[in-house]
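> example.struct
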């Protein structure tokens, strides 16, 4: 008895609508996270650049 190979299903896999909505929400979440990271790093970099003058300013306030 000769058995034929099972044919391969070449149809593209469809994504359920619920997953599509969730991936859109996730991309917005990642975008917001990226923007927040840039803001925090920018603030930290600015403080690092102006640390010496900030230290002098605080010490003048305390004296």
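> example.seq
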């Amino acid at each position: 008895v000769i058995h034929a190979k099972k044919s391969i299903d070449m149809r593209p896999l469809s994504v359920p609508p619920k997953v599509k909505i969730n991936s859109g929400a996730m991309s917005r979440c990642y975008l917001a996270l990226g923007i927040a990271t840039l803001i925090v790093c920018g603030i930290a970099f600015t403080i690092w650049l102006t640390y010496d003058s900030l230290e002098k300013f605080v010490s003048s306030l305390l004296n």
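> remarks
The helical segments are 17-49, 51-62.
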